[in-house]
Amino acid sequence: MLITPPYLLFIGNATDPLSIKMARSAADWSPEKCLGEYRLDGCTVTTGCPVISIEAAAREGAKSFVLGFANSGGHLSPEWLPTIITALDAGMDIVSGLHDKLTDFPELVSQAEKVGKRLIDIRHPTARFKTATGGKRAGKRLLAVGTDCSVGKMYTALALTKALNQRDVKATFRATGQSGILVAGNGVAIDCVISDFISGAAEGLSPANDSDHWDVIEGQGSLSHPAFAGVSLGLLHGSQPDALVVCHALGRSHMRGLPHYPQPSIAHTIDLNLTHARLTNPDAKVVGIAVNTSSVSEQEALAVCQRLAEEFQLPCADPIRHGVKAIVDNLL
Amino acid sequence: MLITPPYLLFIGNATDPLSIKMARSAADWSPEKCLGEYRLDGCTVTTGCPVISIEAAAREGAKSFVLGFANSGGHLSPEWLPTIITALDAGMDIVSGLHDKLTDFPELVSQAEKVGKRLIDIRHPTARFKTATGGKRAGKRLLAVGTDCSVGKMYTALALTKALNQRDVKATFRATGQSGILVAGNGVAIDCVISDFISGAAEGLSPANDSDHWDVIEGQGSLSHPAFAGVSLGLLHGSQPDALVVCHALGRSHMRGLPHYPQPSIAHTIDLNLTHARLTNPDAKVVGIAVNTSSVSEQEALAVCQRLAEEFQLPCADPIRHGVKAIVDNLL
């Protein structure tokens, strides 16, 4: 699954900034891949990319038309089909991170065949995965894990990769969700893999590499999430991380989507993750804590990070507000 | 996914008793569903069911033709297609637990349509599962968990269900693997579910029930297995077990299929399973230890079970050799 840049980011008539997370992730982290955004009347949000039409984007060489928005349920509304067909006709592959598959729409399949373009459903892996072997492989790996879903694991992994590369350390971001896949141009939507192959897919995603190369792997879910912990555990075992960064979001009263489940503590999250990580990598350790402090003031953010750093004797920072220098220092 | 009895168990020309595990499981635990076995020249093993031809079985009312054997890889050899078509023509659904899907063979699909019979790939769930909610539901649940794969979790769960029913306790076996599904006539091959839905599928498999009803759920894998722990964890969270039975096989030097991974201790297995089980059911407890003692003498088996019972202050028995009375006593 390889997505060809440059992308035209289609954000439809979105009005909720959260609904265009996928498009914004690409614009934030791979601006060089994003030619522009295509928006419709009524749209009140933006990726920050230049606004451009399908025709103009095609002339400028756009290769992939990205459905960069999502509604709850991940459905593909038939109202978008004419737009998608226009993009196919303009010579672009279509990329979707929705639950509904592009390939389930016969009119899209036939048009894509006709014009020789691809329909890429990045949430639906088409690769055949292998069962994990648990065998040690060369190279180093870092996995971002979390107290909960949507606490900033992808942003943390991307920030770490960028910081490592800026220091001339060989490092590759490994995407495990649809936004990350769009940023990287490839990856595996790990929560969409058949469960027998979670760990095997994770092994394949971060294969043997140079001994001084870091794979920085986007985490998924949380070992304390009643719905998704299996995904998190399989990803942890298959990634065989040498280093873990624990990600946490301030200001949450409960697990995402589950009001009756309290958040786990950072200490418990460290314990659980190390216990399990050491099954496939006895040397696994936590190298830092990344806190999403967007719900509090700048001053409070610094105070919280300082308190956590002292409590756990680990570098602690908000990757967006403070950067990840301290964590990278500790890693290296 | 509902399999209609009676079954005709097809064991081909198998020579390895382990390769007909699926057929033998049905013969052992649901003999009333098994009309007979159909075997070919060269076959040296048996389910113990009467040998019968396809034609005779059809006359006696066989409703499902079960591919009761497996080769490594789970491939469906084209050499069996004529036999399968004969069974379709004789009026039977076809049931397969192989990785290769019956529905991937166009000649089977067209013949099944023609005669109005079903192709049932029990390893490939067709249901649409929901994401787990973690919400508490009525009824009681027991989950068989293990130190490793293939240690006797299915046999233990079946033995417990039978013993509970014999004491007039309402109890239902819930199958999570292909052999169990064949025994029960329904269930979900949990390791074949998309990983986002492992826990949700487990919730759906053991739905709300009478407050004095026990779902006895077949476990899968092990929290200490580098390839399959994610499946085990998702199943554990979704099952919300009130009671766990820890299953263990004597005489193994390493995890199944992974010579470089030692077996976890029973104590560690209890700890890990209780830690995670209590996320979705704070009252979860271990009610017994089931030991597969087939690798040792009768005398040694008794000695081991007695030693473990004392060490863990829990009833401990080999369900096949000693029955599960002590565990059921403790459960009730």
From TrEMBL, chains A, B:
Pfam families: DUF1611, DUF1611_N
Domain of life: Bacteria
Record InterPro entries: DgcN-like, DgcN-like_C, DgcN-like_N, P-loop_NTPase
Transmembrane region(s): none
D-glutamate N-acetyltransferase-like C-terminal domain boundaries: 132-328
SUPFAM superfamilies per record: P-loop containing nucleoside triphosphate hydrolases
Domain D-glutamate N-acetyltransferase-like N-terminal, residue spans: 41-125
PANTHER family: DUF1611 DOMAIN-CONTAINING PROTEIN, GLL3100 PROTEIN
This protein's name: DUF1611 domain-containing protein
